[in-house]
Structures are given as structure tokens and as C-alpha cells.
């Protein structure tokens, strides 16, 4: 069984992520979308909220599970018996950081392959923090996140 992991902060999940999830789940037998607990980032949404939003988005995708992890991604992939790490590439600016991570991960475990998917051009400008910022300033975010996530985001920012 070809099992892949799609890791990220998902703070919150956007249509750009959903596009990658849809394509990755068609390419692999099983996809684990996993929220990384990253000590270098201060997320807007808690880990439980980010996982809940992903679960809503992935509801009905029978070969997708939502999970979270701490520590080294490669060690987590080994524990989950996954052979592949999926990353989305939005622009050339992503390349250097992703290249460094992929090579580091390969150094730790050469059996785990990183597969890059080119983001849909409609979403190549998108990031979770830019969506947060536009919402915070009262701008439109329809078409960038699902209506449910838009509502959650507005509620969160009003707290
Ligand atoms: N559509 C929209 N946005 C996208 C996107 C897409 N297809 N792909 C990436 N992004 C955005 C994310 O929303 C995020 O935006 P933000 O910074 O505004 O929150 C940004 O790009 C970064 O992407 P993300 O996938 O969340 O990466 P990350 O840099 O937060 O985390 C991990 C990457 C989790 C894979 C990495 O930190 C990791 O492996 N951590 C575990 C520790 C480890 O093993 N370290 C050694 C690695 S060599």
C-alpha cells in the first residue's frame, strides 16, 4: 500500500491545501494529513481546532485521515509506515526552503521520498497567514477558504 503524509501548519486549511489533498489522495492509496506542532510558530487556531477544520474538509474522503505530530517528520513517517512526504510548491520562493528540508529528510532516512506537487495557479499566492491578515482587516476571503472556515476565522478574530 502506498501511504503518503501531507504535513503542515494548516492555520487554517485553505483551498490551496485542499487542492493538494485532492490530488494526493488520487495518487496514493492512503493519505495522512498531519498538523505539525511547530515551536517556531504561534498559531491563531489551537491544534484541536486545526484538526477539526481538516476533519470537516476531508469528511467523505475515504482514504484520508487527519492526525498531528511533534518532533521529526521523518520519524513520524516511519512510525506511520508512510513511504512518501507530500509538499506543495507555490512559487520559486518556496523552492530553496523545500529543497533544504527534502535533502535533510533524505539524509535522516533515504527510504522516505519527498514528492512535490505544483499548486494550482489559482492559489499560488495563498498562505494561511495572508488569509488571516485579509480577514483581520475586514477584506473578502470567499474563494480562499471554505464557508465554514471563513465563519470560524471571523469568530476567532472577533474573540
Ligand atoms: N496552498 C496554500 N498555502 C500553502 C500551500 C498551498 N498549497 N502550501 C503551503 N502553503 C502555506 C501554508 O499555509 C503556510 O502559510 P503560513 O506560513 O502563512 O502559515 C506556509 O505555506 C508554510 O507551509 P506549511 O506547509 O504549513 O509549512 P511549515 O513551514 O509551517 O511546516 C513542516 C513544514 C511541518 C513540514 C516542517 O516544519 C517540519 O517538517 N516540521 C517537523 C520537524 C522536522 O522534521 N524538522 C526537520 C525538517 S528538515
Quick synopsis:
The chain is an alpha/beta fold and 159 residues long.
Note down, in words, how this protein is organized:
The N and C termini lie far apart (44 Å). It contains six helices and five strands, in the order E-H-E-H-E-H-E-H-E-H-H. The model has no long low-confidence stretch (mean pLDDT 96). A five-stranded parallel β-sheet has the order 3-2-1-4-5, sandwiched between helices. It has helices at 15-27, 47-58, 73-79, 92-108, 128-136, 147-158; strands spanning 3-8, 30-36, 64-69, 84-89, 113-118. It has a single domain, classed as HUPs (Rossmann fold, 3-Layer(aba) Sandwich), CATH 3.40.50. It is an alpha/beta fold and 159 residues long. The radius of gyration is 15 Å and the shape is globular. Coenzyme A binds at residues 7-9, 11, 14, 16-17, 20, 36, 38, 72-73, 88, 90, 101, 104-105, 119, 123, 126-129.
The percent of residues in helical segments reads 40-55%
Biggest sheet statistics: 5 strands, parallel
By helix and strand content, what is the structural category?
Answer: alpha/beta
Write out the CATH superfamily name.
HUPs
Bound ligands: coenzyme A
Q: CATH class, anyone?
A: Alpha Beta
Could you list the spans in which at least 5 consecutive residues all have pLDDT below 50? none
In the CATH scheme, what's the topology name? Answer: Rossmann fold
- Helix count equals 6
Mean pLDDT rating:
96
Number of strands: 5
Key traits:
globular, 19% strand, 5 strands, 6 helices, Rossmann fold, alpha/beta, binds coenzyme A, 5-stranded parallel sheet, 159 residues
Amino acid at each position: 500500500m502506498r501511504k503518503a503524509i501531507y504535513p503542515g501548519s494548516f492555520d487554517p486549511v485553505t483551498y490551496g491545501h485542499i487542492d493538494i489533498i485532492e490530488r494526493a489522495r488520487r495518487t496514493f492509496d492512503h493519505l495522512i494529513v498531519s498538523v505539525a506542532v511547530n515551536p517556531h510558530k504561534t498559531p491563531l487556531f489551537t491544534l484541536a481546532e486545526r484538526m477539526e477544520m481538516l476533519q470537516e474538509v476531508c469528511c467523505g474522503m475515504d482514504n484520508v485521515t487527519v492526525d498531528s505530530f511533534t518532533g521529526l517528520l521523518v520519524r513520524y513517517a516511519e512510525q506511520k509506515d508512510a513511504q512518501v512526504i507530500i509538499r506543495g510548491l507555490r512559487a520559486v520562493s518556496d523552492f530553496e526552503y523545500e529543497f533544504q528540508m527534502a535533502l535533510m529528510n533524505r539524509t535522516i532516512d533515504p527510504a522516505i521520498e519527498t514528492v512535490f506537487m505544483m499548486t494550482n495557479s489559482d492559489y499560488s499566492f495563498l498562505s494561511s497567514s495572508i488569509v488571516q491578515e485579509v480577514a483581520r482587516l475586514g477584506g473578502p476571503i470567499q474563494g480562499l477558504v471554505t464557508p465554514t472556515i471563513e465563519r470560524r476565522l471571523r469568530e476567532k478574530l472577533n474573540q
